[in-house]
From TrEMBL:
Top-level taxon: Bacteria
Organism per entry: Breznakiella homolactica
Residues annotated as transmembrane: none
UniProt-listed PANTHER family: GNAT FAMILY, PUTATIVE (AFU_ORTHOLOGUE AFUA_3G00765)-RELATED-RELATED, N-ACETYLTRANSFERASE DOMAIN-CONTAINING PROTEIN
Pfam families: Acetyltransf_3
Annotated GO MF terms: acyltransferase activity, transferring groups other than amino-acyl groups
Name of the protein in its database record: GNAT family N-acetyltransferase
Amino acid sequence: MDSRINEFTSPRLTCRAVQEEDFPAIAALISDPEVMRYTFQECLADEPAQRAYFSKMLSGAAAAGPWVSFAVYNTKNRNFIGLGDCEFKYIKNNPVSAEIGYFLAREHWNQGYATEIAERLMDLCFAGFGVQKVNASCHSGNAASERIMRKIGMRPEGCLRRERIKEGLLYDELRYGILREEWIDIAGQKR
């Protein structure tokens, strides 16, 4: 894994690369049907499936490119909040775009944590890696995630109809994105 992305923080959160000690908290997260409801990942109730998914997180391997998962903790009390991840696409060994994702344990919903995680992931991709674009997507029924993507400055880029299969059903995938120059404008306005 690239040393630039081992750990980063936000005002309330510490996000660090997933480690073996995170398995119990992550297993609880990915086995919660309500948490996994709007993700593109199946709910993983048995430990062998959880271990396989967790091993993939640890190895940083994804089908489309290097994938980095971050365990997210409350900085003050060290409680596990959830996960954030980035998947990079490269041209000649240089990252040019990234897709970010996030999901939280239920007890941490509606507290602004997902927005905070998404903003920091976006900052990491643009400032840390110099990518030209950051994408995110969500299940068509996930209004909360759509609000987050809009709040951090992403624009809707389309609906991939019946793109995702989950539990034997087809779902639409909503795509959002932000370009580097748009992020620079937003970051400048916040200063």
